[in-house]
């Protein structure tokens, strides 16, 4: 009687562990799919792949512009802000090009090097942009990214999705997939050992 209860409890435990392993594998596959349709396209689309050194030539603040500078934008998303334009000397080619914060900055407003977040306080936005401009004048040499193919003649300060960020995004689903497979394998080994013990 006790032996039957132990066998029943063991089977229930194996079933739960098997369901857990399969669930982890399924969740990891969904995470892989989500990353594949969201992050990977942005990574492959970016042409600013080569790192070099940029030297600031000038950092000017122009009159206020509207953000975003694109058609079909919602009215509540449009707000005025001072336009910071940073021109740098690209060490790789010696050209004078415009610097943007990220790939997204160029898409949102190609006239400005930096696009701030929407804020009701215009004084804070102005102070932020002035501080960024002063930092560029203070630290004139820094790493940046350019397009080695020459499709884009401008440069960006940082990539939205660098290779390390992409690897980190794939790390968690990989660990979950590995853990799920390990649980399934251990359950199958346990079942195989149980069958062998029953035949002896």
Can you offer a commentary on this structure?
By secondary structure, the chain is α+β, with helices and mostly antiparallel strands. It has four helices and five strands, in the order αβββααββα. It has helices at residues 2-45, 103-108, 122-138, 163-199; strands at 50-67, 79-90, 96-100, 141-146, 155-156. It has a five-stranded mixed barrel. A hairpin with an 8-residue loop joins strand 4 (141-146) and strand 5. The longest helix has 44 residues, at 2-45. Residues 69-76 have low confidence and may be disordered.
Shape: elongated
- Any idea what the radius of gyration is? 27 Å
Helical content stands at 40-55%
Nearest-integer average pLDDT: 83
Report the strand count.
5
Strand content: 15-25%
């Amino acid at each position: 009687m006790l032996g039957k209860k132990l066998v029943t409890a063991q089977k229930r435990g194996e079933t739960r562990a098997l369901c857990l392993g399969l669930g982890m594998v399924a969740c990891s596959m969904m995470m892989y799919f989500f990353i594949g349709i969201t992050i990977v396209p942005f990574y492959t689309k970016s042409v600013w792949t080569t790192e070099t050194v940029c030297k600031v030539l000038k950092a000017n603040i122009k009159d206020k512009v509207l953000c975003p500078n694109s058609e079909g934008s919602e009215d509540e998303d449009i707000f005025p802000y001072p336009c910071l334009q940073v021109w740098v000397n690209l060490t790789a080619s010696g050209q004078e090009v415009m610097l943007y914060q990220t790939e997204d900055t160029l898409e949102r407003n190609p006239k400005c090097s930096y696009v701030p977040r929407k804020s009701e306080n215009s004084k804070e936005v102005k102070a932020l942009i002035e501080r960024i401009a002063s930092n560029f004048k203070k630290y004139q040499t820094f790493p940046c990214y350019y397009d080695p193919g020459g499709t884009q003649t401008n440069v960006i300060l940082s990539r939205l999705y660098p290779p390390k960020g992409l690897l980190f995004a794939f790390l968690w689903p990989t660990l979950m997939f590995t853990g799920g497979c390990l649980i399934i394998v251990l359950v199958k080994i346990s079942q195989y050992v149980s069958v062998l013990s029953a035949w002896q």
